[in-house]
Amino acid sequence: TKGEKALFVPRLEVEHAQANAVVDRVDQYVEYPFEPHPLNKLQDIIEDMGIRQQYAADQDGYPWILGYKGPSLSELLGEKPLGIATFIEGQMAIKSQSEVNLIKESVKWGNLAHTLLQRYTHPGLTETDVSLRASMEATLCMLDTIGPIYRAQSPFSDGASVGYRGQIGRNAAIPHAMASNIIFQERDVLVTGASAPVWGYNSEL
Which InterPro entries would you find in this protein's record (predicted)? Predict the structure, then answer.
């Protein structure tokens, strides 16, 4: 295909993709579940682009998650893709100085959120109250400092975030627990986490 770049998106995303993606073509499908199946549409696109020989992919088709079911690329194209997930992750691990600076900026605001969390945590208060207060205050401070140029560029958060995620007291022994609005008590063991997305880059404290 001589380096032709294509983006395959649901109909809902077409205009956004056309305005922002650096590609040669944007193809669409009607949101799943619908006929034809999105992967069958992808098969047509691959054939239209002239991809006939060995191809590479990070995985053999879309994962069966969130109610989705569909054929693998191997089933559609009659040949298993060359796996390049390790290569892609290796490339993503290499950061330019600008990217490192964005991660450091993320650390700065995550650290502020974490400092505020420590300051506001007292017996008798709930993790929800303290977490939201610290997150909001750190985010507003970040916006006052960086100004209107700030962009989170994250699908999960639009500012600094900090909390306990339920790892309080006896629950501190449970890794990756869930927030439960627990009331702090004296001598509780506390496990915390803080982050702040900055132009698509993040850190975790």
Answer: Creatinase/aminopeptidase-like
Residue 58 phi/psi, 5-degree rounding, is: -75, -20
Helix (H) / strand (E) containing 89: helix 85-93
102-134 core/surface letters (b: 16 or more CB in 10 A; e: else): beebbbebbbbbbebbeeebeeeebbeebbebb
pLDDT surpassing 70 at residue 1: no
Token match 């993790």: residue?
127
Averaged confidence pLDDT in the chain: 94
**Chain-centroid distance, C-alpha 20:** 18
* Triad 156, 161, 167: Cα angle to 5°: 105
Q: Where are the domains of the chain?
A: 6-92, 95-195
Grade residue 64 by pLDDT with cuts at 50, 70 and 90. confident
Does pLDDT of 34 surpass 90? no
At the fourth CATH level, the homologous superfamily of domain 95-195 is Creatinase/methionine aminopeptidase superfamily (3.90.230.10)
